[in-house]
Structures are given as structure tokens and as C-alpha cells.
């Protein structure tokens, strides 16, 4: 990491809700919740008017209704959000080619050396904010820092429509008092481990020996020690490929019925397979995600001997994981994911005589035929009989 690097983290403010308010003037200034319409759904995004009542992302919808009964609930429009997101990311590339989108509504920018074109970093950031406001009529919050870690922290310090800079000379003083819970990647279990060690801030963490942190937290302990000193070598990677694709669904009713869960997996495997084929990729690792009625959750993964993009192979693998998992409680949410990608040209290889490679190749051919029909006549015209 060079001390002279200048990294921006841009986060669109309450993005989905803000798009809904912009597209529908009747929603402006009102509490808006984007998410599923049933009480079993979860909040995707809440406007700042709704957040004042304690509503936040991932909150069960029935709780959100209870906290803010006057809120207007709007079903998500993914294609619309993607369209606006593409416009925003395009605007960012007017300022630097080093733009790394990390989600639909946030991105990192490396603007090192851009001062001669756009002025000092705060002025550059203001220009970005103005460009976004004038083009898509939305606000964003931007953090400026010498690295990604601190830029992300900074962007969250003055929301909405904020701009915060952490200069190189302020890094040690800033991290000294930063609560460890603010560090990306520190979840509840890590937080509890640190709490038992008496660590509440990164300043306190600096005093602990590397070996102790590594014994308690593994490799993440080493990274935490670096972050405590404000050191983060992670570059901004403008063309970083997706690392995984997934599909998940909150069920209408909690259930342990294997037939219901099986049908969900089949539908989700179709979606994941279609995403892989669209991206020109095959995946080696298939993951099953289950969230139980008490909101606890587990994931189970298996790495295949060869890569696949066939829905049948993805489904069969996920179903095996499900059947191997004792369902002591009812399931609230089920999902399938695929990761560890290889190019589409990579062959699917298993043992010579088990027929799995042939079966996979056959189903991939069927899937590509269905994709072609869907492009011509619309998705859903050809479906599995059980769906």
C-alpha cells in the first residue's frame, strides 16, 4: 500500500427505497419499505423516514409493520434498480477507470493521481455527488481514505448525502477509538471472542500479541491486527468477476415437508444454472442454505470433481445435502448457491464409468435448448413437469 493512494467508497442512500420515491412523487417524504408484501417476508430496504422508527434491512416484515404501521410497503423491482445502478456505475467511470462495484448500490474507486483533472479528493467527491444528483436525482454518501477499509468506514459516518475524509495523517488516531464491531467481517461470534479478551476498540486490539489473536481468530486475527494500524493492501479491482451466484426464498409457511423443500430446490437450481450459462461459467462448489423458524441458519457445501452449469446436477447435489441434514426444526428459508467458477469451456470430469459426466453434458445441452426457447418466447414456456 502506498501512503499516497486515495480510495473512495460510494454508497447510494437507501437505494431501492430512494428509487421508488423518485419514480413515484407521492412517496416522497413518506416512510417507504421495500420488500415482500407478506408478514413472512423481510425488509430489503427502508427509507430514512422509516428508519427513524427502527426499521432496517433484513428485519422480518411483521416487525417492521409493528414499528411503523403507517409505512407504505412496495414490492422490489430488481430490473429497475439494476438499470439505475448501471447508470450510476457508468458515471463513476467518467472520473477514473478504477471502479469496482461491490453490490448494486456501492462501489470502490481508486482516484490516485486524478487531482490534476478533477481537483483535490473532497472536490472530486463533491463533483461525483453532483453528477449523480443531476443525472438520476438520487443522493449518495462517500468516504475518502488511504485504503478500502477506512473508505468504507468513512462512507457510513455521515449518512445520508454525506462526505467524510480520513487523511493519511489521521489514520492512527482514528483507528485508536474505532469500535471493533465497525470493522467489516467482524460478526457476532468474533465480536464475542474479542469482548471476552477485553477488546472493544482497535486501539485496544493493537496491544495484543499476534500469536494470541491468531490462535483465537485464525488468519482473520492477523488481518485485524493490520487493520488496527490502518493498514489494508487490498487493491481496487475494476473487473473482478462474481465469486458466486445464488437463489433463495422465504417460504410462505415454515415447513419440514421434504416435497415442498425439494420443489423449492428444483426451482432455485434452474435459476442458478441459468445465471451460470448467461455468465459463460461453470461452478465446482454447490451450497445449500437453510434458515430455521427460530431464525438460526446453516450452510452446507460440497465441491464436485468437475465443474457444471446444469440445473439437474446443481439440484441433485443440493438435494443430497438437504437429505443428509436432519430437520429437527421447520425451515423458514431455503437457498442454493454455486461458486468456485471455471470458464464454460472447462470439461465436467468424474470417474470414467459412472456416467455422471455424460449425464451432466446431456442436461447442459437440454438447458441451453430451453434457454434458446425462453429468449424467443419468454421464460417459463418450458418447465420441469414437477414445477
What does this structure look like?
This protein is globular. Strand 5 (99-103) and strand 6 (106-110) form a beta hairpin. Helix 4 (78-92) packs antiparallel against helix 6 (121-136). It folds into 3 domains: 1-165, Alpha-Beta Plaits (2-Layer Sandwich), CATH 3.30.70.270; 172-228, DNA polymerase, domain 1 (Orthogonal Bundle); 244-377, DNA polymerase, Y-family, little finger domain (Dna Ligase, domain 1, 2-Layer Sandwich). By secondary structure, it is of the alpha+beta class. It has helices at 15-23, 48-51, 61-67, 78-92, 115-118, 121-136, 148-155, 171-176, 188-196, 202-206, 210-217, 219-228, 258-279, 311-323, 356-377; strands at 7-12, 32-35, 43-46, 72-74, 99-103, 106-110, 140-145, 163-165, 244-255, 281-292, 297-308, 331-343. The strands form 3 sheets. A 5-stranded mixed sheet has the order 5-6-1-7-8. It has 15 helices and 12 strands.
